[in-house]
Amino acid sequence: MNAKRQTLNGDDEWIEIVDLEVKSKIGVPEKERESFQKLLVCIRFQIEAGFRELHDRLDETIDYAAVATEAVRVAEENRARLLETLVSAIADTLMARFRIRHLEVELKKFILPNTRYVGVKSIRTRG
Fold it and tell me: Is the pTM of this model over 0.70?
């Protein structure tokens, strides 16, 4: 039996940015939005080409630092009350700015007692 696995179109190849710290003035009560709160963002995406097709060329992939910078900017500038609104704004912005084929964005907020975090997730696919 051949254990070698064939990857077609990069379906099993992901780039991940895990627990990127961002700050946002978010929350339903007005008092909660008075100052920035720490949130964590996990961004997982697939590029248009498979990794083998990159031939070690940066211009064929997506700059991770630019993705992270854009997520930080959206979180800081957004004045959403709901996590659901903010995670959607981050996902929409990343899809519009970068050549991402498939995107998953998870946003974590540390608000409820006796929990590690509350999380929301948004998924986008191009095409």
Answer: yes
Dihedral pair phi/psi, residue 24, rounded to 5°:
-150, 150
| Amino acid of residue 79 | R
- Taking only the tens of pLDDT, the chain with its 127 residues reads 444 444 455 579 999 999 999 999 999 999 999 999 999 999 999 998 899 999 998 888 999 999 999 999 999 999 999 999 999 999 999 999 999 999 999 999 999 999 999 999 999 999 8
Can you list the domains of the chain with their CATH numbers?
15-125 (3.30.1130.10)
